[in-house]
């Protein structure tokens, strides 16, 4: 695909503010790099603080008209957006694949349908999210109203640009808010296409604004802007702490979806044949740049060696290659910096006593940012590769002897986003799910997601929930109205 086939002219005017495309206030631009080759494939306008002011002003102006529509009317527009995304799904998939280095098959099967699902789900729910009448005991008519928060700053990371834009924009709009979206600097393309689609679907001018830009200053200016009423942030725990602190200083509601380091506990009674596929998918999916990746495998000792052998064979057979090839399951990492970070963490793991079972090396292909899917066994629990988020296709494996020990290891990191338990004992599945400190638990599966299922973490993985009806609660505030009747 060539960039000129994108409907949006990304070479010139790529800030979407108040319903029209414009250059950055200072004319600044930033490069878009293809992770599969390291080559610059496009450049987009790079927003400045002045552009933040313009985008927030446009959103403030548009928000009341949007909020005044009925939920059903807003829902109809979101459903139209879903239909247009379906029509333009190949274009969206190509942009996502080029931008992130995501295998095209994954973009077609997961990212684009996942993003469409967000608009379908919230398009349908938009007319059903309401307050309730309350019986107070006094002679009153009392009821609650769910009101939009106003203008939402949506800040998203590089790894699932389209889905994570959709999982903020769709519920925020359904609830009657206006949005200023700042995509990650590495991956702005699908956000621009989405802006184009939303405008065509009938989202009024100024209700959705998109301002790609580089550097922390832009995001920071957005978070602290007095015209921003709520912040919805997805990204690293390091930046999330800063965003939450700034939002706290200004007393703004904030939702932070942050890093993860998922523990997957495999008991000896699990269906080991099935489990091998589940484990491999859980850590190589999206080249491991997946906040919910199952990166810490905990295996009951009697099956430890057998499972490692089976995993080594399965991982060696995973097709790693060019994202444009339909048979590719694992592509490059998003940037040279991300690939080098992963390589450094694997080196540290080996120095800490880890045994590389498979992988453990860069892959030289077309100048892209490739790293082989890697399994490291026998690491101490204190090793950085166990305790920290690697954000690459790397799995650590540790043995345990008792259920209590498995839980202690699983809950021993700062994170708490996703966790899993693989067992054929249903009582144990419940017991362990209850005890896992995580926002999402998968039993005998991994990566199963749906827009109806709330999504988010505990501990250093953040707070707030995307998806499900819960997200609509987050994007609204409750007003209590009591009418005296005496
Ligand atoms: P990042 O934290 O570096 O950047 C995220 C976004 O924040 C980007 O748009 C960036 O430009 C912006 N930003 C940077 N500094 C800022 C500041 N001071 N104020 C406001 N915004 C600022 O994250 P990344 O490297 O793009 O993404 C990877 C991280 O995201 C991983 O840690 C991953 O686990 C996490 N993630 C979490 C979830 C989840 O739902 N929990 C989902 C996907 C990714």
Protein model, in words:
- By secondary structure, the protein is of the alpha/beta class.
- Helices cover 39% and strands 21% of the residues.
- It is built from 15 helices and 22 strands.
- The strands form 6 sheets. It has a 7-stranded mixed sheet, sandwiched between helices. Strands 9-8-7-10-11-21 form a 6-stranded mixed sheet, sandwiched between helices. Strands 5-6-22 form a 3-stranded antiparallel sheet.
- β15 (362-363) and β16 (370-371) form a beta hairpin.
- The chain is globular, with a radius of gyration of 23 Å.
- The N and C termini lie far apart (70 Å).
- Nicotinamide-adenine-dinucleotide is lined by residues 155-160, 164, 182, 184-185, 216, 219-220, 223, 234-236, 239, 242-243, 257-260, 291, 389, 391, 417, 457, 461-462.
Question: Would you summarize the structure shown here?
Answer:
The protein is of the alpha/beta class.
Topology record:
Layout: E1 15-17, E2 20-22, E3 29-34, E4 39-45, H1 49-68, H2 71-87, H3 89-100, H4 104-125, E5 133-134, E6 140-148, E7 151-155, H5 161-174, E8 178-182, H6 189-201, E9 208-210, H7 216-224, E10 230-234, H8 237-249, E11 254-257, E12 263-266, H9 272-284, E13 296-300, H10 304-316, H11 336-351, E14 355-358, E15 362-363, E16 370-371, E17 374-377, H12 384-387, E18 394-400, H13 403-410, E19 418-422, H14 426-435, E20 440-443, E21 462-463, H15 468-474, E22 476-484
Parallel strand pairs: 7-8, 7-10, 8-9, 10-11, 12-13, 12-19, 13-18, 17-18, 19-20
Antiparallel strand pairs: 1-2, 3-4, 5-6, 6-22, 11-21, 14-17, 15-16
Helix pairs in contact: 1-7, 2-4, 2-6, 3-4, 3-6, 4-5, 9-10
Bound molecules: nicotinamide-adenine-dinucleotide (NAD).
């Amino acid at each position: 695909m060539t960039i000129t086939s994108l409907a949006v002219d990304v070479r010139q005017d790529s800030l979407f503010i108040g319903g029209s495309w414009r250059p950055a206030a200072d004319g600044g631009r930033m490069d878009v790099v293809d992770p599969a080759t390291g080559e610059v494939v496009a450049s987009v306008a790079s927003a400045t603080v002045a552009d933040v002011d313009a985008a927030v002003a446009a959103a403030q102006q548009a928000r009341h008209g949007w909020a005044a529509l009925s939920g059903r009317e807003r829902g109809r527009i979101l459903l139209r957006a879903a239909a247009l995304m379906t029509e333009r799904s190949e274009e969206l998939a190509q942009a996502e694949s080029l931008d992130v280095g995501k295998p095209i098959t994954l973009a077609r099967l997961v990212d684009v349908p996942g993003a469409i699902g967000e608009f379908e789900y919230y398009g349908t729910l938009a007319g059903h999210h309401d307050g309730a009448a309350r019986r107070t005991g006094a002679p009153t008519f009392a009821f609650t109203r769910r009101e939009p928060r106003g203008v939402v700053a949506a800040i998203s990371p590089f790894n699932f640009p389209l889905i994570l834009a959709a999982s903020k924009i769709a519920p925020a709009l359904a609830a009657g808010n206006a949005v200023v979206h700042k995509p990650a600097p590495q991956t702005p393309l699908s956000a621009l296409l989405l802006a184009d689609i939303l405008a065509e679907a009938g989202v009024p001018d100024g209700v959705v604004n998109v301002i790609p830009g580089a550097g922390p200053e832009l995001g920071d200016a957005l978070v602290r802007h007095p015209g921003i009423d709520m912040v919805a942030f997805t990204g690293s725990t390091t930046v999330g702490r800063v965003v939450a602190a700034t939002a706290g200083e200004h007393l703004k509601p904030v939702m932070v979806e942050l890093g993860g380091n998922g523990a997957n506990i495999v008991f000896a009674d699990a269906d080991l044949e099935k489990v091998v596929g589940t484990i491999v998918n859980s850590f190589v999916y999206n080249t491991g740049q997946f906040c919910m990746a199952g990166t810490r495998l905990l295996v009951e000792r009697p099956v430890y060696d057998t499972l490692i052998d089976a995993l080594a064979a399965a991982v060696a057979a995973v097709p790693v290659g060019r994202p444009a090839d339909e048979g590719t399951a694992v592509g490059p990492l998003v940037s040279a910096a991300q690939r080098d970070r992963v390589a450094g963490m694997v080196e540290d793991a080996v120095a800490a006593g880890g045994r590389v079972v498979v992988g453990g090396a860069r892959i030289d292909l077309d100048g892209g940012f490739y790293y082989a899917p890697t399994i490291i066994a026998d690491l101490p629990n204190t090793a950085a590769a166990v305790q920290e988020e690697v954000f690459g296709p790397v799995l650590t494996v540790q043995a345990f002897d008792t259920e209590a020990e498995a839980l202690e290891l699983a809950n021993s990191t700062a994170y708490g986003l996703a966790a899993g338990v693989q067992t054929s004992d249903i009582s144990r599945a419940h017991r362990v799910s209850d005890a896992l400190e995580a926002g999402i638990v998968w039993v005998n599966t991994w990566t199963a997601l749906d827009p109806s299922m709330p999504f988010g973490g505990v501990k250093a993985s953040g707070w707030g929930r995307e998806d499900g009806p819960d997200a609509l609660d987050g994007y609204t505030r409750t007003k209590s109205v009591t009418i005296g009747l005496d």
